[in-house]
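Troubleshooting entry. The earlier prediction with adenosine-5'-triphosphate gave an output that would not parse, so I re-checked the input for stray whitespace and re-submitted. Clean input:
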Amino acid sequence: MNQPLLSIQGLSVDYVTNQDVFRAVDKVDLDIADNEIVGLAGESGCGKSTLAYSVLNLHRPPAFITQGQIRYRDTSVLDLPTASLDRFRWNEVGMVFQSAMNSLNPVVRIDRQFLDVLHAHTDLTREAALARAEDMMRLVDIPVSRLRDYPHQCSGGMRQRIVMAICLALEPRLIIMDEPTTALDVVVQREILQQIHELKQRLGFSVLFITHDLALMLQFCDRIGIMRQGRILEMGSRDDILHRPQNAYTCQLLDAIPGRHLFGRTWQWNQTEEAAL
Ligand SMILES: Nc1ncnc2c1ncn2[C@@H]1O[C@H](COP(=O)(O)OP(=O)(O)OP(=O)(O)O)[C@@H](O)[C@H]1O
Ligand code: NI
């Protein structure tokens, strides 16, 4: 890999409560290259969101980063002064978090919400910002006329796309998505992910995509990390994870995917399954 866009090295995050210290992220290494979609899969509570928040230095007590480094190009994220952090979080790295569709303000028209974000984080004039908002709506395949609507007039899938459009309007190099589509039905989920994929080809950005849905990840990500109890057990290309898993836990997760033979081949460790097909 050339110099990665983001490089996490030996990162540990502890939740410190009363006498208790709980290590939620345990010496994690993770690189993300330019234009790469990296997935993190693992059961609930394994530390995915904690990791995502700390990448942006957004973790708050009782969470503490106790060791490790996060580099974004040549910048050490954990050493960024507060003033630069805001720019980093919006202009360099965008975030779409769990049930982001509810993060739109319900009583503010969508165009206003675009304008507020663009005004706060760019030097665009009002006209240029509106033009950018229209471009972004087209990009995510929503009629520009919807800009005059309130969020409640849009479906959940549409709202989710709009949140993504607002995030993309700042042209971040990396987008962190933590269960961005979990609240949506499966068809809409896949549509949106397909769209992110296409947008990535056109605009060029990297994605850190977090979900417990390994099946979804196998369709969508270039590389996948399997996480358990704060550690990344195994990291590999989509093909490696699907066909050459190295870890028994990865096998368990793959085994739990319904209709997994639809992926084309069964994976090698499962001899009985192969025999059955
Ligand atoms: N404020 C907190 N205080 C103490 N422990 C916490 C706190 N927040 C999270 N944890 C613990 O840290 C661990 C990691 O939580 P995290 O939310 O990162 O997991 P996750 O992989 O994102 O799970 P999910 O898939 O359910 O979103 C969990 O075991 C959780 O109980
Ligand atoms: Ni989470």
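This one parsed fine. Residues 48-49, 178 surround nickel (II) ion (ligand 2) (CB under 6 Å).
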